[in-house]
## 1
Amino acid sequence: MLETTNERAAMPAVPAATGRSTSNGSAQRRRAGRPSAALLDKAGITAAALELVSRKGYEGLTMAALAKALDVAPSALYNHVASKQDVLLLVEDHLMSLVDVSGFEAGPWEDAVRTWAWSYRDVFAEHTPLIPVIAVLPVTDAPQTLAMYETVSKGFSDAGFPQERIVPAIVALESFIFGSAYDVTAPEDIFESGSMADSTPHFTAAVHSSAASGAAGQAGKEGGRQADTAFSMGLDALVSGLGALRGRAEYL
Amino acid sequence: MLETTNERAAMPAVPAATGRSTSNGSAQRRRAGRPSAALLDKAGITAAALELVSRKGYEGLTMAALAKALDVAPSALYNHVASKQDVLLLVEDHLMSLVDVSGFEAGPWEDAVRTWAWSYRDVFAEHTPLIPVIAVLPVTDAPQTLAMYETVSKGFSDAGFPQERIVPAIVALESFIFGSAYDVTAPEDIFESGSMADSTPHFTAAVHSSAASGAAGQAGKEGGRQADTAFSMGLDALVSGLGALRGRAEYL
DNA sequence: GCTAATAAATGAATGGCATTCATTTAGTGG
DNA sequence: CCACTAAATGAATGCCATTCATTTATTAGC
């Protein structure tokens, strides 16, 4: 398939005009060397990575596939990012800008936290492979992430939280949110005990009883319904429990 | 290095005695074909995987390394497990047996949940790469996991939880636990905003204030201290919030 | 305006990885 | 006794991230 090496010596200085206008997606070998206008930058890489993920999922996000989407050789990416992890960081930071923090600008703290938490969970439920990345990511390298924390911190502060409790409270909420994002992707029948149901009567009964009360509607494969119930319960508990901390001092 | 193909025809039927007693770890080429006594089984594979992880971490857990630890060719593993994911499942289920559910057999529900949650978090803080695996793992394939759920479910039931709220409550707690396990592994300075500190005054102040109140002692690299504070706060909130659900009906 | 340094691309390795397959040998059931 | 199955070896296979030498273009300094 790959044609056998000529075309390099041939046609010495065709200006090549404005790149590929032939409307076919990718053909048209580009010759080596720095192009007049740069083909890549971080924003473009981020956008291509996001689009690739939305089409093929995270298994489909390989450096080779990303390069192909950008019509570039894989090694070219390394002039702009140091590693694949670096690409994931770019994606992660972009996603943070999609999290809804608008509630913190007005209205009661409880409502703001709820809005923020639900949108945060929804964004990352579609991107669970990033969660291990976030958990270790220094905020310095992530301006959008930092911006989110600033807004949320201010919201907590304005709501009367003592300084030293703001970060732990946010971390606790975030932990719950990340864990809950995984739930959304779990299969609905994950708790079906099958053949060992006899030896686990309490659990089996609990599973059936919760499935019965929740699943009035359609039975999709994704465990959205169950996950939503658990998220709602946990979030209520956290909001009221953490909200009560605005006042006395215990955690120091 | 690899000696060049003889030894196959040579020495036709040396009994090979009881395998490798030469006390050197691994040398002594084994000849192909089924051995008299099986070298591998799931328990052995699980144990070797755990030991390998504790020595080299999860990056060190490769099928090749696992095979070498068991003094076996990599392909031999596939007679006992279908994939590497399968190995991770075995490890995961083994770890579940280390989670402390003893509190549910006697004493107040609140204490039992706290003991369970702390030990659950501590076990998986050392094994965060398994968390994505657990989240999707059907309990049928995981007897220890199922056993844990049975004990916990019974504890909730005995404490007066209505059937249909038991599973969501456990899921909410687990979500928080998994998310918190990641925190433990995060670097202590993850929230240092560095050069952009000026543009994030509230967050920067909150970070410094929580660091000041928590870190009276030694400054290790791992964020154990901060993570513990957040976990403690969140767990208190969840325990009191969820505990209050024993009675009225709202989540159906 | 020349020239050295730097930036951005290609293309050809490299090494690690999980997994598969043909082959060999040893037990097992009819 | 013989066919079948189980459990091992060893040699591929294909994918993947990353590196390196090379080519070409732009930019900074004299």
## 2
Amino acid sequence: MARTWTVGELADELRVTTRTLRFYEAEGLITPQRAGANRVYSQREHARLRLILRGRRFGMTLSECREIVDMYDGAESSEQRQLQILLARLDEIAADLRARQADLRRTLTEVTDVAAQCRARLDELV
Amino acid sequence: MARTWTVGELADELRVTTRTLRFYEAEGLITPQRAGANRVYSQREHARLRLILRGRRFGMTLSECREIVDMYDGAESSEQRQLQILLARLDEIAADLRARQADLRRTLTEVTDVAAQCRARLDELV
DNA sequence: GTCGTACTTGACGTTTACGTCAACGTAAGG
DNA sequence: CCTTACGTTGACGTAAACGTCAAGTACGAC
């Protein structure tokens, strides 16, 4: 039996509110099953949500997040044309991520430089 | 003579609108000089803005951006207590950035994996 | 049987980060 | 002198991403 979650459980685990999970559903980012009226989240939703939340941490909008998670499904498509479009988009995204990496590296260098300056100033004051 | 910019020039160069620059000023993120009523942006503002916009690309809020750019000024402070606080905060930020790097690396790996899957599927279809 | 807890939908509120007028001043060009 | 281009402030609008009630349902514990 695969693990499932209620809203509350999943919200707790992912450190978001239940409101957020319902909102994401209303936006079509996730589509949990139902047990009567209650939502039942499966591994699939769990995985998608982790991707979405990671995207959000990088400042992506929800629709950008949606685009990405939807691609994970699309990769099993069998239509050549679809796959080609998908692949092109994935390469774009990868390029963007690499640019961000470089950007992040620069930022980190700058921050550590300022910290080093700070330490130098502190040493002078001794 | 150090280079200066008008709102329009700087907005064009940084690829934002003049509205954005005025908004940032209203929020206290930058404080351009004036030539009469007109704003005059110097290297200082130019540098701060580049930092701010980079922060924004990483999903930071404007107040988080403000905190960071203000630190670059604070590093020249001469009060020991101030410097220690600043340094502690900088180390926190650096740690956060490193976490983001790892996160970004994972994301990139996943994206390239999906792309590889795609390519495999495409090869099968030949 | 009612108390507490967790779930439901729906509606409205809120913050952030600007966009979009409106109404006006000013300096250069034809 | 008039237009055009750029600048100014001020006020209001807006999209995104939730927060915050309200009102109701369902279920196990006591």
